[in-house]
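Hi support team,

I've been running sequence recovery on a batch of backbones for a student project. Most finish fine, but this one hangs at about 90% for roughly twenty minutes before it completes. I'm not sure whether the input is malformed or the queue is just slow. I've pasted the structure tokens below so you can try to reproduce it. Let me know if you need the job ID as well.

Thanks,
M.K.
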């Protein structure tokens, strides 16, 4: 399978919306509407891509252990950078006695975080990963990856439909489309990832043929962005569920195999997406705590603080992809074989 540049663009735009959502105060905005639904788009894309790349390898004899090693190798080096930044932020808050974690809680969070496991620490915000809270989605991502590796032989079309429908029912029954990031909502995270990830697998198996490069993919990317931005949609949670159940899958099915014009730009968005996702929260925390430490507030610095933060973090993400992540993974792969 060649590089799917439209998927790169979707990933990049989704990561940008997550960044904007968590840095809303830097723009003096109360919030960015529905940015958190970008995670469901990530899960959907992941199911699509991993099914396309790895199911043929499973048929050729790839083991569960080898697959999970490959997934950890893909995710861990950049995850470690995000964790390190979270440690710096939390340690500074601990020393200044302005954080939510005690010394013991901090130590436990570092240990479990290094293992990519949820921390048993109960913090003020109830986060699964108190040192870098967006990492909750990586935990569910790896859970879905393991399920794919264990069950791929049994994932017939009827079985995939059953998983998707039952997961959708679970999401509706739970009632919170944004579940999964905290201990209080962890139960709702399983149907959330189950729906989007395995629907991605199903779409990949029944994808339309590829097309020559065009502008339709960018229209679809803009549509995904609009779905993450629209305010006050009628129906509240039902509108959010409709976006996850219908809008994102339709976009993926229509354009996943279409290559966009300006393909290099789309590829750059894709390269930036994962490093941006794993570093942005602790860096925003460090910036915010630094501003507050000097007796100021972020809002009076808006929107220039927000613009500078977004541009800087995007540049850092691209550099991490090119000069750190690719090289580290290549060296590890050479060492472990």
């Amino acid at each position: 399978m060649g590089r799917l540049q439209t998927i790169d663009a979707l990933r990049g735009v989704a990561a940008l919306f997550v960044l904007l959502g968590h840095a809303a105060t830097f723009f003096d905005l109360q919030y960015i509407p529905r940015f958190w639904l970008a995670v469901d788009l990530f899960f959907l894309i992941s199911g699509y891509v991993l099914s396309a790349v790895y199911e043929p390898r499973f048929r050729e004899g790839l083991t569960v252990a080898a697959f999970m090693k490959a997934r950890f190798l893909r995710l861990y080096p950049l995850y470690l950078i995000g964790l390190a930044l979270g440690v710096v932020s939390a340690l500074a808050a601990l020393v200044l006695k302005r954080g939510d974690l005690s010394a013991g809680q901090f130590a436990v969070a570092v240990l479990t975080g290094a293992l990519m496991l949820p921390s048993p620490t109960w913090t003020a915000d109830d986060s699964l990963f108190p040192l870098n809270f967006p990492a909750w989605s990586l935990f569910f991502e790896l859970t879905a990856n393991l399920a794919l590796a264990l069950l791929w032989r049994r994932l017939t079309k009827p079985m995939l439909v059953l998983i998707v429908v039952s997961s959708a029912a679970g999401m509706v029954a739970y009632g919170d489309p944004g579940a999964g990031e905290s201990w209080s909502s962890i139960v709702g995270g399983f149907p959330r990832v189950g729906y989007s990830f395995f629907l991605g697998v199903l779409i990949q198996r029944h994808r339309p043929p590829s097309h020559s490069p065009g502008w339709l993919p960018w229209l679809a990317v803009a549509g995904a962005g609009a779905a993450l931005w629209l305010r006050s949609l009628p129906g509240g949670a039902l509108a959010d569920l409709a976006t996850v159940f219908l809008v994102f899958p339709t976009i993926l099915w229509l354009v996943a195999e279409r290559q966009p014009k300006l393909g290099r730009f789309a590829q750059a968005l894709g390269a930036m997406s994962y490093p941006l996702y794993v570093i942005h929260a602790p860096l925003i925390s460090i910036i915010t705590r630094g501003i507050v430490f000097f007796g100021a507030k972020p809002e009076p610095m808006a929107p220039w603080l927000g613009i500078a933060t977004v541009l800087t973090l995007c540049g850092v993400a691209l550099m991490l992809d090119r000069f750190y992540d690719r090289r580290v993974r290549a060296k590890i792969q050479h060492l472990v074989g």
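--
Follow-up from support: It reproduced on our side and the slowdown came from queue contention, not your input. Residues 5-336 form one domain. No action needed from you.
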